[in-house]
């Protein structure tokens, strides 16, 4: 869940993971300028690692490096959306 200001490219996003037994868990909030890229370190009971949001042209990507309890490692760079 989150929002992007199209004029400034500032972003505010909450990251969640779905963990068996616990359900949906908020693991981090990312806020800052997509032009520079925004990274957050994650260190909560169910997950540790980092997440980076970046803008390439008009395409928003997230790069994950996570270790999630009961799930394992989640990593890679994923296209989220194309901005108008």
**Total number of beta strands:** 7
Count of domains: 1
Spatial order of the strands forming the largest sheet: 4-5-6-7
Shape: elongated
Output the radius of gyration. 13 Å
Number of helices: 0
Strand content: over 45%
| Structural class determined from secondary elements | mainly beta
Which whole number gives the mean pLDDT? 88
Helix content: under 10%
Report on the structure:
This protein has 84 residues and is an all-beta fold. It has one domain (2-82). The protein is 0% helix and 74% strand. The protein has strands at residues 2-4, 10-19, 23-33, 38-44, 47-56, 59-68, 72-82. β5 and β6 form a beta hairpin. The chain is elongated, with a radius of gyration of 13 Å. The model has no long low-confidence stretch (mean pLDDT 88).
Throw out a few tags for this protein:
mainly beta, 0% helix, 84 residues, 4-stranded antiparallel β-sheet, 3-stranded antiparallel β-sheet
Helix and strand topology:
Layout: E1 2-4, E2 10-19, E3 23-33, E4 38-44, E5 47-56, E6 59-68, E7 72-82
Antiparallel strand pairs: 1-2, 2-3, 4-5, 5-6, 6-7
Report a brief summary of the structure.
The protein has 84 residues and is an all-beta fold. The protein contains no helices and 7 strands.
């Amino acid at each position: 869940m989150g929002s992007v200001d199209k004029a400034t490219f500032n972003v505010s996003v909450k990251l969640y993971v779905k963990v068996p037994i616990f359900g949906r868990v908020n693991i981090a909030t990312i806020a800052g300028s997509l032009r520079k890229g925004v990274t957050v370190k994650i260190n909560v009971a169910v997950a540790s690692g980092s997440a980076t949001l970046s803008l390439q042209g008009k395409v928003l990507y997230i790069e994950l490096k996570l270790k999630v309890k009961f799930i394992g490692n989640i990593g890679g760079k994923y296209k989220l959306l194309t901005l108008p």
